Amino acid sequence: MSAGNARDAVAAASAALEAAGCESPRLDAEVLLADALGLDRSVLISDPRLEIPAPLARLIGERVRRRIAREPVAYILGRKGFRYIELAVDRRVLIPRPETELLVEVARELPGGARVHDVGTGSGAVALALLDERPDLAVSASDASSEAVAVARANARRLGLDLEPAVLRGMPAGVFDLVVANLPYVADEELASLAPEIRCHEPHEALLGGPDGLDAIRELVAGSPPGTLLAFEHAPQQAAAVRALLEEAETRRDMAGQERVTVGRRPVPLGRTP
Question: Does the model's pTM come out above 0.90?
Fold first, then answer.
């Protein structure tokens, strides 16, 4: 028994999502429907008269209702693409974002055999992308959240990549050629202004960084051995403040031209060598 065709289902879902304030209602509708049907989105677009079986119509309806409540598409599907890998994601971790790819690009510049540690790994996005693209690097990872580490470990196993993240706040023992970190950097007072997808669904402990958003970044700088090379993701308006925490600092811009990742060294106290 059919519950209608794809064209009508996409139109109805798009209208409902637009009324709910979703930014890309038609795209979201097509992605949710295509996944429920087990099809590529291009097939859904090219064959609008495709019939939808009644059992799948119920699944589609449930997913659309979740999106109307502004739950992110990535959480509804349970996955998100990041560079050349696909990661399982849920409400225990932030959804990987394109701007975070800059941290991967910074680490890719290292010579073979370099040691890289990913602090605040979350789903494991940065560390796993590095292992996928630069298997010659020695990559490790950690996160203060045991729930996030469980997600990262599961992603590593599913992708067949050798990563065993540790539950740890801050820097582990050891010497690293580069430490990358996507730590919480949203100022506490900015929470109310965030989109409902972020404010209501993503883990606040992975978002909020204190009054100016830089508490976790300052803590990692202070806890790193002098001379350690660090790369931080941050908000564009925080770039100057992050540079001020480091020596030999430079800021990289994301694809939108915004200052997004700052690379520099933990200052060496006067009279000491790293």
Answer: yes
